[in-house]
Model the fold of this input.
Amino acid sequence: MDFLTCEVRTLDGQSLGVMVLKAKTFASGSRDYHGQAKIEVEGERLQCQCQAVVIGSKGDAKQEASE
Done:
């Protein structure tokens, strides 16, 4: 998967913005998806960040290296 999307919403479900999270592999072998966006909430501009780490991905890289 090359990317994910993350939607920022209020508690009542109103969409405030959508971020595209790009895939990244670190030198350690860990993998994640990360992105940022600017959204407006009640007249104020906010900068949002989102990160989703693939749990156990560092272990996957160690396994592949030993095979």
Summary: The mean pLDDT is 90. The chain has one domain: 3-66. Residues 57-66 form the longest helix (10 residues). Strands lie at 3-9, 15-25, 31-41, 44-53.
